[in-house]
Specification:
Blueprint: E1 4-10, H1 25-33, E2 41-44, E3 51-54, E4 59-63, E5 68-76, H2 82-95, E6 104-106, E7 111-117, H3 122-132, E8 137-143, H4 148-159, H5 163-171, H6 187-203, E9 210-213, E10 216-219, H7 223-231
Parallel strand pairs: 7-8
Antiparallel strand pairs: 1-5, 2-3, 3-4, 4-5, 6-8, 7-9, 9-10
Helix pairs in contact: 4-5
């Protein structure tokens, strides 16, 4: 077994998030000890006696022997974050199932890329420039605004007559510095935004950008990882 470092940030009693549970002795003990902590799954981790608890949006750990919760990351001696990898796999399973009809579609390439992004996020804009230059990608964009400014720009894009042109202007920074925005009250626009935010909540996305490419999740604009997936 590889040597692992358990980064323990704190012992916590987490708030309830999801409502699924496994019917196992460990899960039963956990539910009895922490009745307010709902979860989707509990499974053995790579450390004997330590179990991975998945809430639907994050992972923490449970030691049934000592009946305590550990909140942090499992990191190998060579720096691999096993907690992040496990969470990415769970996100990928959920992203594979979401319908794409409400997403903003750009490109017409053979490889489908799904992203969650914030139009005011620097790395999201860098990713947009990268994918705009790829002829082999069809990009489906879901919006996850992390500020009011971003939310206003998303509404401006969706309210415009030429959505793709307006989106390109936003991502190119042409509407920064308090440029006037067209924020309509169209019900379809509001429904699209609500749908995107519902997916954010259901999938457990906590930041942008996030990409789903060929069955795998890339958290952040990690160019080497993205290029490797696209080119394989």
């Amino acid at each position: 077994m590889r040597k692992l470092t358990l980064t323990i940030l704190c012992f916590v009693f987490l708030l309830p998030i999801c409502v699924f549970s496994a019917d196992t002795p460990v899960a039963d003990k956990f539910k009895k000890s922490f009745p307010k902590n709902n979860f989707e799954s509990i499974a053995p981790s790579t450390i004997k006696g330590v179990y991975e608890v998945y809430t639907g949006s994050q992972i923490y750990y449970y030691m049934p022997k000592d009946d305590v919760i550990l909140y942090g990351s499992l990191i190998t001696k060579d720096g691999k974050n096993l907690t992040r990898e496990s969470n990415s796999k769970k996100i990928a399973q959920k992203m594979a199932k979401i319908p794409l009809n409400s997403a903003l579609k750009t490109g017409n390439g053979k490889t489908t890329v799904v992203e969650f992004m914030d139009p005011h996020c620097y790395h999201c804009r860098q990713a947009y420039k990268f994918f705009s230059q790829r002829q082999d990608v069809t990009l489906y964009t879901f919006f996850f605004p992390l500020s009011k400014e971003s939310a206003d720009k998303i509404r401006h894009v969706l309210c415009s007559k030429d959505v793709l042109k307006t989106y390109d202007d936003v991502m190119d920074g042409k509407l920064d510095n308090n440029a006037p925005l067209n924020i309509c009250t169209d019900k379809k626009v509001e429904e699209t935004i609500k749908t995107h935010m519902r997916f954010v909540s259901e999938i457990g996305i906590r930041g942008t950008p996030l990409f789903y490419i060929k069955g795998q999740v890339v958290d952040g604009f990690e160019l080497p990882a993205i290029e490797k997936l696209l080119n394989n």
